[in-house]
Design goal:
By secondary structure, the protein is of the alpha+beta class. The protein has seven helices and ten strands. The protein is elongated, with a radius of gyration of 33 Å.
Length: 306
């Protein structure tokens, strides 16, 4: 082996050893505060990089995350110790899509080398069923005994006579009131006006002070649900509170969606788990739901009709 070959080989070996030692001093990772959440529940995604002081680097490159929404602006932090610099970036996110979703790997360039974090899987689901409620199994088919034909004829005859009597009474009532002037009624309330009036009535009722927490949160939830139904936002009468939030998230900013989801989750806890919130929480939940209705109404009025 020639001297030149030995020199090239030694240089290459020195470069590889230097690179390996430098890589040992570099650490990048991603972590989350929870890997299982309810729809609308916030989690914190943390990206970290620990590098030697003499290294050249930038921040992580993070764009939008599929199936996730940002609730707050990211928070960046830099810490310097004796031998290293630690970069941290915190993202407060949530998801309104149920399922199992993956937060992808993110890259950071250090000394012209690209480093990747690990991907993280997050499970997003609805609130579990209340185990304290009674379980109703499927009943067997119950055979109904046959009714005699004569008995059915009697029933038909009685119903027919009652229908004729009701028709005669209605016709006489109509003739009696035909000459009377119609009673003037006030203008019909809009969904927003009705919701505002009911909220004012609920606030004046003093239910929380009287210890009637379940009645207070049930009425508050029903006012919101009625407003959503009348505005054709969430029309299903059996929609859960999570589905109410999902149905209007496009009409609210992320912070308002988060506060509405938290308020409805607390309302469920009071109604179904006998949770007793504090006085400040009553006021906060009431204000969050009232502001949600006001913000949605403003958005509806600004939307041009088709």
């Amino acid at each position: 082996m020639s001297f030149t070959t030995i020199k090239i080989f030694s240089g290459l070996l020195l470069f590889l050893v230097s690179t390996a030692l430098q890589a040992q001093d570099i650490m990048v990772k991603a972590s989350v505060s929870k890997d299982r959440i309810l729809i609308g529940e916030p989690i914190v995604l943390k990206l970290e990089a620990e590098i030697p002081k003499s290294s050249e680097t930038g921040w992580f490159k993070v764009d939008s995350i599929e199936h996730f929404d940002y609730l707050k602006q990211p928070v960046k932090d830099t810490q310097i110790n004796v031998n290293a610099i630690i970069f941290k970036e915190l993202f407060t996110i949530t998801s309104f899509d149920s399922g199992s979703w993956t937060i992808p790997r993110y890259s950071i360039t250090i000394n012209n080398n690209r480093y990747l974090t690990d991907s993280i899987r997050i499970d997003v689901g609805y609130s579990p069923a209340d185990p304290s409620q009674p379980y109703h199994d499927i009943r067997d088919i119950v055979e109904v005994p046959e009714t005699e034909q004569l008995y059915i004829n009697y029933i038909i005859a009685v119903v027919t006579l009652l229908a004729i009597a009701a028709l005669i009474w209605l016709l006489r009532r109509k003739r009696k009131t035909a000459g009377e002037s119609p009673v003037q009624t006030g203008p019909r309330l809009t969904p927003y006006e009705r919701a505002t009036a009911e909220l004012a009535s609920l606030k004046a009722s003093g239910l929380p002070a009287a210890g009637q927490l379940k009645q207070f949160y049930t009425r508050l939830n029903d006012i919101l649900r009625t407003y959503f139904r009348e505005q054709q936002l969430v029309t299903s009468p059996d929609a859960s509170n999570e589905q109410l939030v999902v149905g209007v998230k496009s009409r609210l900013d992320n912070e308002s969606v988060y506060r509405l989801a938290q308020s409805l989750r607390l309302a469920d806890a009071v109604k179904f788990a006998r949770y007793e919130p504090g006085v400040n929480e009553h006021e906060q939940v009431f204000n969050d739901i009232k502001e949600s209705i006001e913000n949605i109404e403003t958005k509806i009025r600004k939307t041009p009709s088709a």
